[in-house]
Specification:
Largest sheet: none
Low-confidence stretches: 1-32, 191-196
Mean pLDDT: 76
Shape: globular
Radius of gyration: 19 Å
Order of helices and strands: HHHHHHHH
Number of domains: 2
Number of strands: 0
Strand content: under 5%
Distance between the termini: 25 Å
Protein backbone atom coordinates (compact mmCIF):
# COMPACT_ATOMS: atom_id res chain seq x y z
CA UNK A 1 0.00 0.00 0.00
CA UNK A 2 1.30 3.37 -0.95
CA UNK A 3 0.81 5.74 1.96
CA UNK A 4 1.82 9.31 1.43
CA UNK A 5 3.51 11.08 4.30
CA UNK A 6 4.61 14.58 3.78
CA UNK A 7 3.39 17.83 2.52
CA UNK A 8 2.41 18.39 6.11
CA UNK A 9 1.87 22.09 5.89
CA UNK A 10 0.36 22.08 2.43
CA UNK A 11 -1.96 19.20 3.30
CA UNK A 12 -3.18 20.88 6.42
CA UNK A 13 -3.73 24.18 4.65
CA UNK A 14 -5.37 22.68 1.56
CA UNK A 15 -7.91 20.20 2.90
CA UNK A 16 -11.45 21.16 3.72
CA UNK A 17 -12.36 21.13 7.38
CA UNK A 18 -14.53 18.10 7.93
CA UNK A 19 -16.68 19.42 10.74
CA UNK A 20 -19.65 21.55 9.85
CA UNK A 21 -21.73 23.63 12.19
CA UNK A 22 -25.50 23.65 12.10
CA UNK A 23 -27.31 26.80 11.03
CA UNK A 24 -29.73 27.95 13.71
CA UNK A 25 -32.62 28.20 11.26
CA UNK A 26 -33.55 25.26 9.12
CA UNK A 27 -30.86 23.01 10.63
CA UNK A 28 -28.84 23.11 7.41
CA UNK A 29 -25.08 22.84 7.73
CA UNK A 30 -23.13 25.98 7.06
CA UNK A 31 -20.32 25.55 4.56
CA UNK A 32 -16.92 25.36 6.21
CA UNK A 33 -14.27 27.65 4.78
CA UNK A 34 -11.90 25.69 2.56
CA UNK A 35 -8.15 25.60 2.08
CA UNK A 36 -5.96 28.08 3.87
CA UNK A 37 -8.96 30.14 4.99
CA UNK A 38 -10.52 27.05 6.57
CA UNK A 39 -7.38 26.24 8.50
CA UNK A 40 -6.86 29.88 9.49
CA UNK A 41 -10.48 30.00 10.70
CA UNK A 42 -10.20 26.71 12.58
CA UNK A 43 -6.96 27.79 14.28
CA UNK A 44 -8.36 31.28 14.91
CA UNK A 45 -5.28 32.93 13.40
CA UNK A 46 -4.83 36.65 13.86
CA UNK A 47 -4.41 38.82 10.78
CA UNK A 48 -0.69 39.08 11.53
CA UNK A 49 -0.38 35.29 11.82
CA UNK A 50 -2.25 34.86 8.53
CA UNK A 51 0.15 37.25 6.81
CA UNK A 52 3.20 35.51 8.25
CA UNK A 53 1.98 32.02 7.32
CA UNK A 54 0.96 33.12 3.82
CA UNK A 55 4.43 34.62 3.32
CA UNK A 56 6.07 31.38 4.51
CA UNK A 57 3.91 29.31 2.16
CA UNK A 58 4.68 31.63 -0.76
CA UNK A 59 8.42 31.24 -0.18
CA UNK A 60 7.97 27.48 0.16
CA UNK A 61 6.10 27.29 -3.17
CA UNK A 62 8.83 29.28 -4.92
CA UNK A 63 11.58 27.13 -3.45
CA UNK A 64 9.66 23.94 -4.27
CA UNK A 65 9.33 25.05 -7.88
CA UNK A 66 13.05 25.87 -8.06
CA UNK A 67 13.94 22.41 -6.75
CA UNK A 68 11.61 20.71 -9.22
CA UNK A 69 13.06 22.71 -12.10
CA UNK A 70 16.70 22.07 -11.11
CA UNK A 71 17.84 19.62 -13.78
CA UNK A 72 21.21 19.10 -12.07
CA UNK A 73 19.54 17.17 -9.21
CA UNK A 74 18.74 13.47 -9.31
CA UNK A 75 15.18 12.43 -8.45
CA UNK A 76 16.39 11.25 -5.01
CA UNK A 77 18.11 14.57 -4.37
CA UNK A 78 14.95 16.42 -5.35
CA UNK A 79 12.87 14.25 -3.00
CA UNK A 80 15.32 14.82 -0.15
CA UNK A 81 15.40 18.58 -0.71
CA UNK A 82 11.62 18.78 -1.00
CA UNK A 83 11.27 16.78 2.22
CA UNK A 84 13.69 19.11 4.00
CA UNK A 85 11.83 22.13 2.64
CA UNK A 86 8.51 20.77 3.93
CA UNK A 87 9.97 20.13 7.37
CA UNK A 88 11.55 23.58 7.48
CA UNK A 89 8.31 25.28 6.44
CA UNK A 90 6.37 23.22 8.96
CA UNK A 91 8.71 24.25 11.75
CA UNK A 92 8.51 27.90 10.71
CA UNK A 93 4.70 27.77 10.63
CA UNK A 94 4.61 26.18 14.08
CA UNK A 95 6.81 29.00 15.38
CA UNK A 96 4.14 31.52 14.32
CA UNK A 97 1.39 29.69 16.23
CA UNK A 98 0.53 29.83 19.92
CA UNK A 99 0.91 26.56 21.88
CA UNK A 100 -2.86 25.98 21.71
CA UNK A 101 -2.89 26.60 17.95
CA UNK A 102 0.10 24.28 17.53
CA UNK A 103 -1.80 21.51 19.27
CA UNK A 104 -4.88 22.03 17.09
CA UNK A 105 -2.70 22.20 13.98
CA UNK A 106 -1.04 18.86 14.84
CA UNK A 107 -4.42 17.27 15.60
CA UNK A 108 -5.79 18.53 12.30
CA UNK A 109 -2.84 17.08 10.43
CA UNK A 110 -3.24 13.73 12.15
CA UNK A 111 -6.93 13.74 11.27
CA UNK A 112 -6.29 14.73 7.67
CA UNK A 113 -3.32 12.50 6.92
CA UNK A 114 -3.66 9.74 9.48
CA UNK A 115 -6.41 7.70 7.89
CA UNK A 116 -6.47 9.60 4.57
CA UNK A 117 -5.98 6.75 2.07
CA UNK A 118 -8.36 4.56 4.08
CA UNK A 119 -11.15 7.14 4.31
CA UNK A 120 -13.23 5.57 1.49
CA UNK A 121 -13.47 2.35 3.55
CA UNK A 122 -15.87 3.89 6.10
CA UNK A 123 -13.85 2.72 9.08
CA UNK A 124 -15.62 2.32 12.40
CA UNK A 125 -14.35 4.38 15.35
CA UNK A 126 -12.89 1.17 16.82
CA UNK A 127 -11.03 0.43 13.58
CA UNK A 128 -9.67 3.98 13.48
CA UNK A 129 -8.39 3.58 17.04
CA UNK A 130 -6.61 0.36 16.05
CA UNK A 131 -5.22 1.69 12.76
CA UNK A 132 -4.03 5.04 14.16
CA UNK A 133 -1.09 3.56 16.10
CA UNK A 134 -0.17 1.34 13.14
CA UNK A 135 0.10 4.39 10.89
CA UNK A 136 1.94 6.35 13.57
CA UNK A 137 4.53 3.57 13.88
CA UNK A 138 4.79 3.50 10.08
CA UNK A 139 5.48 7.25 10.00
CA UNK A 140 8.10 7.02 12.74
CA UNK A 141 9.89 4.12 11.06
CA UNK A 142 9.72 5.90 7.70
CA UNK A 143 11.23 9.07 9.18
CA UNK A 144 14.02 7.04 10.78
CA UNK A 145 14.88 5.36 7.47
CA UNK A 146 14.74 8.60 5.51
CA UNK A 147 17.01 10.38 7.96
CA UNK A 148 19.53 7.52 8.13
CA UNK A 149 22.45 8.88 6.10
CA UNK A 150 24.31 5.55 6.33
CA UNK A 151 21.81 3.94 3.93
CA UNK A 152 22.06 4.12 0.16
CA UNK A 153 18.94 5.20 -1.79
CA UNK A 154 18.39 1.56 -2.81
CA UNK A 155 18.63 0.40 0.82
CA UNK A 156 16.20 3.12 1.87
CA UNK A 157 13.73 2.03 -0.83
CA UNK A 158 13.98 -1.60 0.30
CA UNK A 159 13.47 -0.71 3.96
CA UNK A 160 10.53 1.57 3.13
CA UNK A 161 8.97 -1.22 1.08
CA UNK A 162 9.33 -3.59 4.05
CA UNK A 163 7.75 -1.02 6.38
CA UNK A 164 4.81 -0.50 4.03
CA UNK A 165 4.35 -4.24 3.61
CA UNK A 166 4.26 -4.73 7.38
CA UNK A 167 1.87 -1.79 7.80
CA UNK A 168 -0.39 -3.18 5.07
CA UNK A 169 -0.47 -6.62 6.73
CA UNK A 170 -1.33 -5.10 10.10
CA UNK A 171 -4.09 -2.94 8.62
CA UNK A 172 -5.54 -5.90 6.74
CA UNK A 173 -6.15 -7.70 10.05
CA UNK A 174 -8.31 -4.78 11.27
CA UNK A 175 -10.46 -4.55 8.12
CA UNK A 176 -13.59 -6.53 7.35
CA UNK A 177 -13.56 -8.77 4.24
CA UNK A 178 -15.64 -6.18 2.35
CA UNK A 179 -13.24 -3.38 3.32
CA UNK A 180 -10.24 -5.50 2.27
CA UNK A 181 -11.88 -6.07 -1.11
CA UNK A 182 -12.64 -2.34 -1.54
CA UNK A 183 -9.07 -1.46 -0.55
CA UNK A 184 -7.71 -3.90 -3.13
CA UNK A 185 -9.98 -2.42 -5.81
CA UNK A 186 -8.90 1.09 -4.82
CA UNK A 187 -5.21 0.16 -5.02
CA UNK A 188 -5.66 -1.50 -8.42
CA UNK A 189 -7.48 1.55 -9.73
CA UNK A 190 -4.89 3.96 -8.23
CA UNK A 191 -1.86 2.14 -9.57
CA UNK A 192 -3.39 1.07 -12.88
CA UNK A 193 -5.45 4.02 -14.11
CA UNK A 194 -7.47 3.36 -17.22
CA UNK A 195 -5.61 4.34 -20.36
CA UNK A 196 -7.37 6.89 -22.45
Amino acid sequence: MRLRFGVLVIACFSFTALAQTARPEGNRPLPTPRGFNGTAHELNLTDQQKSEVEALLKVEREQRQAIRNNSSLTPEQKRDQLRQLRRSTHDQVLAVLTPEQQQRFQQRHEHVSGIGPLAPLDLTPEQKLKIGPILQADRQQTRAVLSDSSLTPQQKRAKLQDIRSTTNSQIQTVLSPTQRQRLQQFKQHSFNPPSG
